[in-house]
Write a structure and sequence with these properties.
Length: 342
């Protein structure tokens, strides 16, 4: 695994073309070379030694920056890193062009294996929620806990507001949409995304809006922008139709890690009604519903989400300590019995 640190830019500065992305105070970016893929990783220095590692995975069209607010609030609880999935943020496309859920999950697994940070507290939003569900199901050794914010798990009755996003995965639609919207400004596009993803777009500060516009302008210049979007959207659609052991709901049932599910009442992309189905699917889970939140609760209500995450971590630690105590007691008892018999 090769790693190269990328230059950071203060949040209030203007982005020159030579600098890929900005980072919040206390963050750093580095580029990590792995077999078949190169990932950009956003991290925060641990507040103290001994903190358990956490890894955050963003949704369709997002980036690791979507987790910055929550990562900052968890500084004293975990050692945080967030990845840009292949083709998103500042990560280049994968060598094999595979943007399926399995392809993205494979990239996350390769990073965890190469970095040696696992098992981690794993977080996923939307597309990232589907990806991390698959990771937790197929590689339980890499996951301590799982936190899913509006995970993109299959729905039989998709909301009408989510249909346009799903259609991006249909061949030819993205090119048609690109031609139809070529006169749209970056500001118009960002306002549309915020209206779709936030329960209350008014919660976005003017500074954050300006940054989002700058970032979208940068990413629209990338030759693979629409390809990454459309192929990843197609990957979600394909995962929705996949049955058997590889189906996402079946894999959710296989997740062993303690799981926190977070759903927003104003989510226009993932149906709020799916919260109860998800709560039944994951065997060891707790559910947090936020009636005023949209699709990105960790960005709208980071304080509330951080509180729920801390409770998950504390309970998971207590359970692990109890298991260690039971194992130690059992081992001591077995040793005593063996000594008596001898």
């Amino acid at each position: 695994m090769s790693s190269t640190e990328l230059p950071s830019v203060p949040p209030t500065s203007v982005l020159p073309k030579s600098v890929p992305v900005r980072v919040a105070e206390g963050e750093r970016l580095r580029s990590v070379g792995l077999p078949g893929v190169t990932l950009t990783v956003r991290s925060r220095p641990p507040a103290r030694e001994g903190l358990q590692p956490a890894l955050f995975v963003h949704g369709l069209g997002g980036s690791s920056q979507n987790w910055s607010a929550l990562m900052a609030m968890l500084d004293g609880d975990v050692a945080s890193e967030a990845v840009d999935l292949p083709g998103f943020g500042d990560s280049p496309p994968p060598d094999d062009g595979n943007y399926s859920i399995t392809g993205h999950a494979r990239a996350v697994i390769r990073y965890l294996e190469a970095s040696g940070r696992g098992p981690v507290h794993l977080f996923g939003n939307s597309l990232g929620g589907a990806v991390t569900t698959r990771v937790a199901a197929v590689r339980p050794d890499l996951v301590r806990t799982l936190t899913l914010v509006s995970p993109a798990l299959p729905e039989l009755r998709v909301q009408r507001t989510a249909v346009p996003t799903g259609l991006l995965g249909v061949p030819g639609v993205a090119a048609l949409f690109s031609r139809f919207t070529r006169e749209w400004t970056a500001e118009q596009r960002v306002r549309g995304v915020l209206a779709l993803c936030y329960g209350d777009p008014g919660r976005v500060s003017e500074e954050a809006f300006r940054y989002a516009v700058e970032e979208l302008e940068r990413r629209l210049r990338l030759p693979y922008f629409w390809d990454a979007m459309t192929r990843s959207a197609r990957g979600i659609l394909n995962a929705y139709t996949l049955g058997g052991q590889h189906g996402l709901w079946r894999q959710a049932e296989r997740v062993l890690a303690p799981t926190l599910l977070i759903y927003g009442g104003r989510d226009q992309l993932v149906g709020f009604r799916m919260a109860q189905r998800a709560a039944r699917a994951f065997r060891d889970c707790r559910l947090l519903t936020l009636p005023e939140a949209g699709h990105v609760a960790m960005m709208e209500y980071p304080e509330t989400v951080a509180t729920a995450v801390r409770e998950l971590l504390a309970d998971a630690a207590d359970t692990a300590d109890a298991a260690d105590t039971t194992n130690s007691t059992g081992a001591a008892g077995a040793a005593g019995t063996a000594a008596t018999r001898s």
